[in-house]
Design a protein that fits this description.
single chain; transmembrane
Length: about 60
Amino acid sequence: MAHHHHEEKENLDSYFYIIALLTGLFVGFVVNRGLIYIPIGGVLGLLTAALFLKFLVRGRHDA
């Protein structure tokens, strides 16, 4: 009896969003103009990740 290993394609979207959120929060903290820039940086990071996923990652096809 042969055992077949099915590779499941892992959804990596959440990793992109988490990295973008943390990076955006860090950039907002580094700007050091006030506490309001930390959440603004997080939101801009999430928007950047969404655009990255929509236009760059989804456009690639495995050959």
